[in-house]
Amino acid sequence: MKAVIFDLDGVITDTAEYHFLAWKHIAEQIDIPFDRSMNESLKGISREKSLENILIYGGAEASYTNAEKQDLLHQKNKYYQTLISKLTPEDLLPGIGRLLRELKVENIKIGLASSSRNAPEILRRLEIIDDFHAIVDPTALAKGKPDPEIFLTAAALLGVSPADCAAVEDAEAGIAAIKSAGMFAVGVGYEQSMHDADLIVRQTCDLTFEVLNEEWKSYTINRIQK
Ligand code: B16
Ligand code: MG
Asked: Mind telling me which SUPFAM superfamilies this protein's record contains (predicted)?
């Protein structure tokens, strides 16, 4: 294992909750029901695609012009930015600060593969931006998760082969992207949405370098034997 690539929302900090609140605010304005299960299906999905899915869900895909959709996207992001402006290092999910320190000690490269254009600002507010050797710019990608492009780009920026990377995700689309990139997939959360992951932990605090390294070792032995 030469690198660990992280998703942001729901792995490093709980901004998944802020995306939920911001989309709920927009959905209420346009009279589309929005709940946590709908929000779950948007995790890891780009802002534009998320709005498209909400409109389809509400049977309203043909009711808005492109300019109106742009306005809704702008409003969602403004609302979201107000919420993230309050983030502090206290908002790191449990165990993540420790894991970053452990990886540093082990000389393992650290990358970020987040679909969020707000990711650099969030890392700055959490005061961990300097721990990352590479941060993928999602605006430069042709395809979003579940396509592997974002994870392959992170590996290329880190100068590490995908086969030597582990990646951590909280969303089904993200786990699918990691597996298609040929990496070791770590899922944080409930097993139903993580079924393709190579290692599943319930919460971020269960993810230590020791656990990661032990599972990595059995994964590579199995891979060699196949
Ligand atoms: P933004 P991740 C994703 O981040 C979120 O899970 C998803 O809900 C959001 O729509 C997307 O980023 C875009 O975010 O609107 O801030 O550009 O999970 O890939 O870190
Ligand atoms: Mg996520």
From this structure: HAD-like
